[in-house]
Design goal:
This protein is of the alpha/beta class and about 280 residues long. The protein has a 7-stranded mixed beta sheet. α1 packs parallel to α2. The chain is globular, with a radius of gyration of 18 Å.
Length: about 280
């Protein structure tokens, strides 16, 4: 078994169409994958059809953005892509992203960094976000890479930064559960918290419905993954892993990156799939 449970397509901010993404994962021997686009489930149907044709298991996923003094991402696994509450939430998020992108372009133009909102929209294909603004900045010659564009213009304190609308973690957990999904904290190390603070907040979110931790992720060094694994086991949380693949121009990670460390993938996947099977089925 080879699993990658955190991947993005052009439906959000990835570089590959959903079917292309499945084919790319299949070519690398992935047997179980989750499509987890940001605040969108629109790519699930195409990805599932492609996965079925290749004998792969496709988990319907989503990555919801929320805040808790900092940006937090919650992965939902086994969600019903037709759930109206989830779709309504995603539509609101997409609208907010579009408004935010427009404000970023305006603020950048006021600082002499002239990029077109129409071009940002073209680069996005679907929902717009900071990565698409960053790519437009690179195209216009204001940065040499997406990472540089973020650091120079699109992080807090920089001229093009626009804060996100605040959404509580409890709300994201509720949306995922209502859609029949299993809620997992994405890339905990990107929260940049000390061990004790992280353990405390994980316990708080567990009480609100958090069910797992993304232990294996490129952002977690070996010793950090070991700590996350210990925390998950102690708290009775599910263990998952994902590359957070977007594509070379967006995020410099490749499919399956860092997941060779996931030695218990078979048992952890069994537990995740069992938890998903316990949720209401959708047609």
């Amino acid at each position: 078994m080879k699993a990658d449970l955190h991947m993005h397509s052009t439906v959000s901010d990835g570089m590959l169409e959903p079917r292309e993404l499945v084919r790319a994962a299949w070519s690398l021997g992935v047997t179980h994958m989750a499509l987890t686009d940001h605040d969108s489930v629109e790519g699930i149907a195409d990805a599932r059809d492609e996965a079925v044709s290749r004998g792969m298991t496709l988990i319907a996923g989503v990555e919801l953005s929320c805040t808790a003094g900092r940006e937090v991402h919650i992965l939902g696994y086994g969600v019903d892509p037709f759930d109206e509450a989830l779709l309504s939430f995603c539509r609101e998020q997409v609208f907010e992203r579009e408004q935010r992108a427009a404000q970023m372009v305006q603020r950048l133009s006021e600082e002499g960094k002239m990029i077109s909102l129409a071009r940002v929209r073209e680069l996005a294909h679907g929902a717009m976000g900071r990565p698409h603004v960053a790519r437009a900045l690179v195209e216009a010659g204001y940065a040499s890479s997406v990472d540089e564009a973020f650091v120079r213009y699109l992080v807090p304190g920089r001229c093009g930064y626009v804060p996100k609308k605040e959404i509580k973690v409890a709300k994201a957990l509720e949306i995922i559960h209502q859609a029949g999904g299993v809620a997992v904290l994405a890339h905990p190390m990107e929260l940049k918290m000390g061990d004790m603070a992280l353990e405390s907040i994980v316990r708080e979110w567990k009480a609100q419905g958090l069910e797992g931790l993304e232990v294996y992720h490129p952002s977690a060094a070996n010793h950090q993954a070991a700590h996350l694994l210990s925390l998950a086991r102690r708290e009775g949380l599910l263990v998952t892993g994902g590359s957070d693949f977007h594509g070379e121009k967006v995020r410099k990670t490749h499919i399956g990156e860092g997941l060779e460390r996931w030695q218990t993938v078979g048992e952890d996947m069994r537990l995740l799939l069992k938890r998903m099977d316990e949720r209401p089925a959708y047609e």
